[in-house]
Design goal:
Layout (H helix, E strand, L loop, with lengths): L16 E6 L2 E6 L4 H7 L6 E2 L5 E2 L12 E4 L2 E4 L10 E3 L20 E3 L2 E4 L3 H12 L4 E4 L30 H18 L3 E4 L12 E3 L3
Parallel strand pairs: 1-7, 9-10, 10-11
Antiparallel strand pairs: 1-2, 3-4, 5-6, 5-7, 8-12
Amino acid sequence: MHKIHKHPIIEVTQAEKQRFHFQGKAVEGEKGFTIAAALHRAGYPVHSHSLKNRRRSLECGIGKCSACEMLVDGEVKRICITPVDGVQTVGEIPKGFVAEPGIYIKPQGFRVYKTEVVIVGAGPAGLAAREVLNEHGISNIVVDSNSEIGGQFNMQTHQFFFFEKEKKYGGMRGFEISKTWRGITTKASCSTARYGTSLRETVWQRKTSPQTKYST
């Protein structure tokens, strides 16, 4: 597999090189790009083996399945969405491997936000729900584990048609719609404490009361 250096629609940027070790060999990747991309470019498309020793590689490619889970610096991670940044070693998860319980220590305290609705996922559905809630003045916070909002739209390069009544996004490409949403999100997050988007987050506690906690 080779890197695409020129694309008719998407700008391909140059990134700083990052080396890590896989099976005792040095593999070179680029910061901001995934471990999976680096391994495939280096000629290592096999990430794990089944119980019958069948070779396994990428499946969904968007971090929603476990086909590409590997040990990354001793932790189980899905390499199709894990950047090479700062990574030292990558290896196949041994058969019978059981991860030890981790202890999470946060150097700073937690912020507590009060909201009526927590929307998990900053993809098209989550952001559409937020838009409706905002129109009705209902406080909400969008939480997403990714570093950017947009979900699957970030991977769409084709132009969309005028399917919705408002005809807001017809003719735009998926990643362009995501960029538009990012601008709206930034503005909403800064203008009021009642609405906002928190990225790279995982919901760790849920209560039945309007007060919901999540890490920042």
